[in-house]
Amino acid sequence: MTSSGRETTLALVRESLEQGLSAQRGRAVALRELNPAHNDYGSSFAVARLRAVLDDGEPLAVVLKDLNPLHQSVEARSVRRTGLGRSRRELWMYREVLDSEGLATPRLYGHRWEPKRGLLWLLIEDVGPERLSRVGEFDLWLAAARWSARLHLALKDLAGGEAALMRHDIAESRQHAAQITARLAEVSVEQRAVIRRALELHDEFVDTLDEQPWGVIHGEYTAKNIVVRRGSPDRQIAVLDWETVAHGPLYRDLADISAGDWTRERRVAMWRAYHDQYCRDSGRALAWDRFFREVSEVALVRAVAWLAWWSRENGRHIVRWVDELRRLTTQFFAPAK
């Protein structure tokens, strides 16, 4: 981008921030300073970190998320459509749904929605760079599991509205299994055995997903989408990337956050943290045995779904999710002796 182009962009960002902050605070707000920090890809979309100073001297750390699907990362463009559905969904969540105080999600400072000019910006609080995926403190993973229970209760009465929430149904799960079955010849004999066992289990209980609790879920509640807030005991984590919000099996988010190279004990500890938080906040008792079985099943269905995204060029992805299927079948679906 040329120097004049950067200046024009910063002027538009300044205008969007001043308009958004003025509307939120009920008074005219002007920016004394606005400076770029650095750019990167926070998820699928490009993000820019900005540092602002308001007219009263208040510092403001801002993230500009570019929601233009044509500006997604190369990897994201290869697997996702370039329509505006995901972008509209995320903007709607920040503007109409998310409670930054109650859920500690990033605050919305402003936005710009001009599709004809390709300007689709979300301006939110910069909650920091430390992703949970790079943190080994297990207490924070437990906090993330508990947070997902709070989210599900907070969104239990949410209607789709203009955002047209996606729906993750049985047909989608069956499609993932079919995609994998068609490509079994591309993996090793050892991997094939693991996948076939997982697909057998998948077929046994995929039709029961509709009998599980359903609700509004984040959709990709992975550690890469969670930022750790240091020094904030009551706001330990902040969850990002709301373009994937959807209707689906409620425990899908829990399956996502507890996926990985965990022992059975630690994975179950995360499930227990969710269970206890949900029961405490809802005032309802969830039978542990049934909950445990349903989460186990969703976890396997979810791992099959992630594996379905494989490509021949991404061997690490295949290894990762075949290993996850191996762990799940061994830890939770081993034949009784």
TrEMBL record:
Keywords assigned by UniProt, alphabetized: Transferase
Aminoglycoside phosphotransferase domain mapped to chain residues: 95-285
GO molecular function: transferase activity
UniProt name for this protein: Phosphotransferase enzyme family protein
Organism: Enhygromyxa salina
Lineage: Bacteria, Pseudomonadati, Myxococcota, Polyangia, Nannocystales
